[in-house]
Amino acid sequence: EMLDSYGDPLTGSVTNYGSLLLQLISKFCTNYCNALGGRSPDVSLSELYGGARISYVFHQVFAKGLLNIGPFDRLSDSDIRTAIRNATGPRPSLFVPEVSFELLVKRQIKRLEGPSLQCVDMVFDELAKVASQCEQLVPQLKRFPTLRDQLLECVHELLSSQVKPTKEMISDLISIELSYVNTNHPDFVGGSKAIHNFNKKVQRLKAEDKKRDPNSKADLATLLSRDKKESKGNHITASIGAAVGGIANSLGFSQGGPTQQPPTERELIETEIIKTLISSYFNIVRQNVTDNVPKSIMFFLVNYTKDRIQSQLVRALYKDEHFKKLLSESSSISEKRDQKTELLAVLRKS
């Protein structure tokens, strides 16, 4: 059995070399596709393997990472008020300016691009790991180190060639979201509902304040400030989002001048309404990105390479002039086979 594992010495015509090469390439590609499709017979029970690892990247790493990027990370109430003032120009507006909402929500949406591109790199690493594991599942490749190295190099080149178009597609997805803010989306809260929700929130805060102190006459700023201190979720989300995404961009608004003054009641109301609109639309886009990025990676990177890996390897390696070089055995294999052959001959004579 040990002698059989070393194989027979390669002799004969070019056809024999070519047949063996095609056989090894076919086995390697079959193992690669089976690993991605979850049909590999040598599935590990101690860790995730093949396509299951890619699924883990999509749903446990990427999706949860996006959820940890909040709509108000690196975006303070002061920033929002400054954006509203900049959008109104020299005179105050009668209504909340839509320009400020679009400016702020686009800046937040842009922050989703970094983690999405990082997801491509993680899937690329997993595919390269699958290729390395599949090489180990073809024992005959141990005889031919040159062929083994060329196989892995060709697969790496195929994967690398698809990283750029995949990232371009994902950047285009973000650009598409930035190109048109669809305020008619059925899940978008809208201006009238945002005002209604704000009024309900104020009524709730006043009722809670009356329970604390029946004689309380707290103004709107006090109520909102107290509510913000009680709900610390935004601060936790900001720290996690910065760690996961790593791409949060500062708005760059000046913190001097009027923004240092206490906000008026009108500014507080406008800020809360804008925050409701930003949160609603950002959540819609984040869900779109969470859904479309894995689909894009599967189409441009995973399925593309799986469908073309065999033809690519045959095109690159199946050349008559390269047969003997690719199928040259390592010296250790030849020596071990000769030793075992001599030992077997001695045992048979005895």
Could you describe the 3D structure shown?
It is built from 13 helices and no strands. It has 350 residues and is mainly alpha-helical. The longest helix is centred in the last third of the chain and has 53 residues, at 265-317.
Rounded to the nearest angstrom, the distance between the terminal CA atoms is 20 Å
Count of helical segments? Answer: 13
Number of strands: 0
What shape does the CA trace take? Answer: elongated
Helical/strand content category: mainly alpha
Hey, roughly how much beta strand do the residues contain?
under 5%
Question: How would you sum up the major sheet?
Answer: none
Q: What's the pLDDT, averaged over the residues?
A: 79
Unreliable segments of 5+ consecutive residues: 1-6, 233-259
Rg, please? 31 Å
The helicity comes to: over 70%
Order of helices and strands: HHHHHHHHHHHHH
In a few lines, what is going on in this structure?
This protein has 350 residues and is mostly helical. Helices cover 72% and strands 0% of the residues.
Please describe the structure with a list of short key phrases separated by commas or semicolons.
350 residues, mainly alpha, 13 helices, elongated, disordered N terminus
List the helices and strands and how they pair.
Layout: H1 2-6, H2 14-37, H3 51-67, H4 77-88, H5 98-110, H6 113-136, H7 145-179, H8 191-212, H9 220-230, H10 233-245, H11 265-317, H12 323-326, H13 331-349
